[in-house]
Inverse folding.
């Protein structure tokens, strides 16, 4: 008979696959088992450590809801979500980055130049840019889904004082691929720390902060969807995003603008007297 | 600034650890991240596959209860539980094997020679043996915790028709380390297949069967606890245990005994007229 040993268990695992197993399933599960076995052997995982890992998963199970998914957060802080984003990014396109849990379906339509600030009257941030293809040609009529934190650091779904569609909007770029809107600066925030992920971060001596960012999903017919985030260059957490979302091409700069220089063509035109900030961010899509 | 890439994300992950992190925590979590990142890159995990993995964890979360832990089962069928058992086994001791979810605390005490069959009148199996140290000397008074399936393939906690202590017992070996009891043959059974683990086994073309086995925990003062299982040599699933629990030194042989040969010194002595089976299994403990 065959005896299972630490040295042959991976081989035995592979031998269990049936002959009709989908080759991709076999590749993925076989590789996962190979790497998990290698990890277990490499560190000499103890029964106590194994039990703690299982307890962390059970705790994650208890607190996971449709609005708060601790398993996704675990994948995020382990760098897995970001790695999946990166290896599925397309050459020549703007980098993709974590979707995160705060996207809403059916965001309210916005006209080019509309304002997202709602009841918040913090300093205006004017965001504009162009959607282009890999050759630099404009992509007319691209659909741009935009969301961000309010100035209090909360997404609408985390904040009973905000409408669920607060700081969410869906804009169609013009015939030159251009988009523009006004908003406020998004702010840095922490991922939830009251579950097992918080304990892991704490034990690792890691902070739970994400640098502030604007979320975008950019879609256009014939092009691959782009899910991404854009980060200001001066954010203190830029080099230490706890979910590993920052890429160099996703960094933007807020340019301070003097009082009295607010342009025409915006919902806020004529209403902004003081200084404001301006940022230009272009997206590159690649064809399907 | 530093940009995160598929090639440096593991290094970035390691750089996030704080200076005061417990070295063992850092070793385990650092190695886990390294291997999960390598897996993700190696197979080029897609967003769809990542989402399916997250959905499997959420499904496991939904069906996990104190009596049915799908995360433990996932670890079992991936070979992780068994690998942890093996790498923590001590040289010179009887191999350890999966504890499983069916152990109960405070099993009822049994005298040497007692019978476990309860209301089941299947053919008698006489189990006996000796607990020894690594030099072959008897370990007097070792405590032996025993449990198994009923002939219907169910453990007591799975079967409303059985008392919760049915086929569970706690025996103290004699001054020569000897133990003996009568029972019925345990039977092969399937792990639960109505959750994500069942789907994974099905997609992998794997069966959900475990070879039949007797469970033992053997403890003695000054020795390391032994958690193990013992399997009959003629079980059809011996080479294909779906949780990888079989080791060559854990295989036993049922020896058929003729009618009229049942020995003295047992609770059933004088009550067994027909043929019965006999098995001898010795345990070796190593000192702490």
């Amino acid at each position: 008979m065959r005896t299972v040993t630490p040295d042959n268990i991976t081989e035995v695992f592979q031998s269990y696959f049936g002959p009709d197993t989908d080759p991709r399933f076999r590749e993925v599960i076989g590789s996962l088992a190979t790497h998990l076995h290698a990890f277990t052997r490499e560190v000499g995982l103890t029964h106590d450590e194994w039990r703690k890992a299982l307890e962390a998963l059970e705790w994650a199970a208890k607190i996971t809801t449709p609005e708060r998914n601790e398993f996704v957060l675990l994948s995020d802080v382990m760098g897995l979500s970001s790695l999946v984003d990166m290896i599925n990014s397309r050459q020549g396109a703007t980098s993709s980055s974590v979707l995160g849990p705060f996207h809403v379906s059916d965001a309210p339509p916005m006209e080019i130049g509309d304002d997202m600030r709602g009841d918040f009257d913090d300093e205006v941030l004017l965001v504009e840019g162009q959607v282009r293809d890999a050759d630099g040609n404009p992509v007319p009529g691209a659909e741009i889904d935009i969301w961000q934190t309010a100035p209090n650091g909360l997404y609408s779904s985390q904040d009973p004082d905000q409408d669920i569609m607060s700081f969410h909007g869906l804009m169609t770029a013009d015939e030159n691929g251009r988009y523009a809107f006004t908003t406020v600066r998004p702010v840095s925030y922490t991922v939830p720390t009251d579950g097992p992920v918080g304990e892991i971060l704490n034990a690792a001596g890691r902070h739970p902060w994400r640098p502030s960012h604007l979320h975008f999903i950019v879609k256009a017919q014939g092009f691959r969807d782009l899910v991404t985030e854009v980060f200001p260059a001066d954010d203190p957490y830029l080099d230490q995003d706890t979910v590993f979302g920052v890429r160099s091409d996703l960094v933007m700069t807020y340019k301070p603008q003097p009082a009295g220089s607010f342009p025409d063509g915006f919902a806020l035109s004529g209403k902004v007297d003081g200084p404001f900030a301006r940022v230009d961010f272009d997206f590159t899509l690649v064809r399907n």
